[in-house]
Design goal:
There is one protein chain. The chain is of the alpha+beta class. It folds into 2 domains: about 140 residues, Four Helix Bundle (Hemerythrin (Met), subunit A), CATH 1.20.120; about 100 residues. The chain has a 4-stranded mixed beta sheet. A hairpin with a 6-residue loop joins strand 2 and strand 3. Helix 3 crosses helix 4 and helix 7 packs parallel to helix 8. It starts with a helix and ends in a 5-residue tail after the last helix.
């Protein structure tokens, strides 16, 4: 392997590699399917207001097919036909399984130096990007399916999610998604929000200056550069769910309420 090849195959910024992400994706797809079947396709999804389990499965199956197309270097114009296909399927859960399996195969078949569309800030190489994105997309929506079976948002200790995957998902959210905003969250004054999971050797300083794009930096907890006006902390998995608005139905405090209303990505 050349130096360039090694760089392309390297794990993401928190050391979570392609195999870890692929394994976590497979686990999440299995959890999503099992809980969707147990809840029933007509069951409401508490963490996705207005959605039924059928909506959830059709959406996620569509996204899997859309992502697999990019991994196969296909032209992917519209994703909606995939979702219609799922809704019209006589066996929507079997259709979901087929899409998840095809996505994993597309990850295996894709070259490390894949040239494909990516859409997040500081995105890793395309093969790793799409594996990571679908790992976290599927994990969060599997938590939605678990909530549909339970009839309420799932607690962190009721999930299967490993802390390392949760930390990687927090990084993707704060570095990749949140920073896509053209302007800060306009909290009334420049604000430095520290997201610091318990027991982790990394934290994220989110700078929310009025009128400016949001900026996120990885920092060492307890270091001078981690000084902030507000801090969100907690168990890594719990924090992962809370930041994706998949925590308790009601925010645990006013800071979390503010996050949900002004910053959080909600889909």
């Amino acid at each position: 392997m050349t130096t360039d090849d090694a760089a392309l195959a390297a794990p993401g910024p928190l050391g979570v590699g392609l195999d870890d992400l692929g394994e976590a994706f497979g686990a999440a797809a299995t959890v999503l399917r099992a809980n969707a079947m147990a809840a029933g396709l007509d069951a409401p999804v508490p963490t996705c207001p207005g959605w039924t389990v059928l909506d959830l499965v059709a959406h996620q199956g569509m996204v899997h097919r859309w992502a697999a197309g990019h991994l196969r270097s296909e032209t992917v114009d519209e994703a909606e036909p995939f979702e219609r296909e799922g809704r019209e399927s006589a066996d929507v859960l079997g259709w979901f399984d087929d899409g998840a399996t095809a996505l994993l195969q597309a990850v295996v078949d894709a070259p490390d130096d894949l040239h494909a569309f990516v859409f997040l800030k500081e995105a890793p190489p395309a093969r790793l990007f799409w594996t990571r994105r679908q790992c976290h997309e599927t994990t969060i929506h599997a938590v939605d399916a678990l909530g549909a079976r339970l009839g309420r948002p799932a607690r962190a200790d009721e999930t299967w999610i490993r802390p390392a995957i949760a930390l990687d998902g927090i990084d993707e959210l704060l570095v990749g998604f949140v920073t896509r905003r053209r302007e800060g969250a306009s909290p009334g004054a420049p604000t430095r929000l520290l997201v610091s999971p318990e027991g982790a050797d990394v934290a994220w300083l989110v700078e929310l200056n009025t009128g400016r794009p949001i900026r996120t930096r990885r920092v060492r907890p307890g270091s001078p550069e981690a000084a902030a006006d507000h801090t969100l902390t907690g168990d890594p998995v719990d924090l992962y769910l809370r930041l994706w608005t998949r925590g308790a139905a009601e925010p645990v405090d006013e800071l979390e309420r503010w996050w949900r209303e002004t910053v959080s990505v909600t889909w």
